[in-house]
User: Fold this.
Amino acid sequence: MSDEPLIAVVPGSYDPITRGHLDIVRRARRLAGRVIVAVGDNTTKNYLFTQDERVQLARASLADLPDVVVEPLTGLLVDFAAAHGASMIVKGLRFAGDFDYELQMAHLNSHLQPAVETVFLPAGRAFGTISSSLLRTIAHNGGDIAEFVTPEVLRAVTARVAGGT
Ligand code: PNS
Assistant:
């Protein structure tokens, strides 16, 4: 076995990153020596933040975590993983709906790149079932999402839904 640390990719849209995501990244870091948070850009999605903004918010939210970096994801996830020397993709599962979709992606990713393994982590109990989209809806309607995101994300969401920066 190699002495090189295992590298895990934790991909997602992170629009914006939530405390549920942060929990998965922290736990992925316990499984792997290094973690790359890969911020995707799905053209079918109508994002609140640009990819660059989502990368910056993830970086600000994860600044205290050593051996974790945040990078934009372009192209196929498995190609990104291979290019970064990662041997696993870590995904959080909240409920059955996540599993149906994630299993399909895991099978296709395994077909495309058998050397990269997908690992599913059960979402944490505290913030596990929240979603970025529900938080965006709450914020758009004037609700308080402070408990579920970092102060940096809260500031950015508040400014964006108010029509500011
Ligand atoms: O948080 P999301 O929106 O579910 O994240 C989706 C993401 C970025 C993980 C997914 O769209 C992705 O992996 N995109 C890269 C393109 C790719 O490899 N797609 C999967 C082919 S099976």
